[in-house]
C-alpha cells in the first residue's frame, strides 16, 4: 500500500491504529500523531507516514 501511495504522488498516509498494533505500523515508519481515543471499548491513536520528509 505504501508503494502504491507513493506512485500516486500522495503526501502521506494516515490510519487509526489500535494501541496493540502501534509497533506493527511503526515498522513501516508510521508515527503516532494524536492522543488516545476510545471507540467501541477499544483504544486507538492516529498514525501518520509523511512522504515529504
Summarize the SSE layout with pairings.
Blueprint (H helix, E strand, L loop, with lengths): L1 H6 L4 E7 L3 H5 L4 E2 L4 E3 L2 E9 L3
Antiparallel strand pairs: 1-4, 2-4, 3-4
Shape: elongated
What percent strand?
35-45%
Question: What is the total tally of β strands?
Answer: 4
Q: Percent helix among the residues? A: 10-25%
Explain the overall architecture:
With 53 residues, the chain is α+β, with helices and mostly antiparallel strands. It has helices spanning 2-7, 22-26; strands at 12-18, 31-32, 37-39, 42-50. Strands 1, 2, 3 and 4 form a four-stranded antiparallel β-sheet that branches. The protein is elongated and about 35 Å long.
Can you tag this structure with a few keywords?
2 helices; alpha+beta; 53 residues; four-stranded antiparallel beta sheet
Task: Give a nutshell description of this structure.
This protein is α+β, with helices and mostly antiparallel strands and 53 residues long.
Amino acid at each position: 500500500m505504501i508503494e502504491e501511495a507513493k506512485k500516486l504522488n500522495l503526501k502521506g498516509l494516515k490510519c487509526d491504529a489500535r494501541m496493540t498494533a502501534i509497533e506493527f505500523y511503526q515498522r513501516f515508519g508510521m508515527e503516532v500523531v494524536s492522543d488516545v481515543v476510545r471507540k467501541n471499548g477499544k483504544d486507538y491513536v492516529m498514525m501518520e507516514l509523511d512522504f515529504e520528509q
